[in-house]
Amino acid sequence: MKNMTNTLLKGVLNLLPMVVSLWIFWSLFASLDELGDFLLRLVGLPTLFTGEGFLLVLLLVFAAGLLFSVSPIVWLYDVIVQQLMRFPLFKTVYGSINDIASLMSQNEENKGQQTVLVKQSNGSYVVGFIMADNAPEPLLAALPEGDWVPVLFQLSYQIAGVTSLVKREDLTVVDWSFEEAMRYSLTAGITSTTEVAAQ
After folding, report:
1. Could you tell me the pTM of the whole model?
2. Nearest residue to 152 via CA among 137, 124, 171, 169
3. Cβ contacts of 35 within 8 Å, gap of 6 or more
């Protein structure tokens, strides 16, 4: 009975990430395809095959990318955004989504993200991430003299984290990629331990 339970659990643990990932991508595809089909119906065009709406949305996004390389379009868009930013709720939601999108769109060499260890008072270390080379000027003006940098301490199993300002001299730089270290922190090290045990 115990072997059967372990085998069932192993099957679930191996299949679940794949099934959930495929379901998320399929849901995204279906939603975008439905949106594209809706746009086609608005202009009176029939749907000829499944995925036509998805291709239309991709084409529109590509066209938007081309338009945003034209200065007048960028200027007009910025004006519209600035007007909408007057509404507090829109400012909060748009600002958060825009920050995430900006983080994702940066190239690896421009991210400036570095994995570090921060020593605690009891001699233990906490994994952190330097997210920017410098802290904001208002914070630097309020802090004592020193080379302060913002360090993110990721909370396990959560998207949220805690940002602390730490002196650069108190950081131990780790030769570990941001993606791998973030994955380690998000899963509290369970993912890495499981992978090592499986080898």
Report:
1. 0.52
2. 171
3. 53, 57
151 touches 164 (CB < 8 A): yes
Cβ–Cβ under 8 Å, residues 155 and 127: no
Q: pLDDT tens across 59-101, in order?
A: 999 998 888 888 888 888 888 988 888 888 888 888 777 766 6
DSSP annotation of 85 reads T
- Do 141 and 79 share a structural domain? no
Q: Are 111 and 178 in contact (CB under 8 A)?
A: yes
Structure tokens at 62: 């590509």
Q: Computed over its alpha carbons, how large is the radius of gyration of the chain?
A: 23
Q: In this structure, are residues 156 and 125 in contact, taking their beta carbons and an 8 Å threshold?
A: no
119 forms beta bridges with 125
Query: Last residue of some domain: 55, 78, 105?
Result: 105
In terms of domains, do 10 and 89 share one? yes
149 touches 134 (CB < 8 A): yes
Q: How far apart are CA 77 and CA 80, in angstroms?
A: 5
31 with 119, same domain: the answer is no
Query: How many folded domains does the chain comprise?
Result: 2
Q: Which domain holds residue 64?
A: 2-105
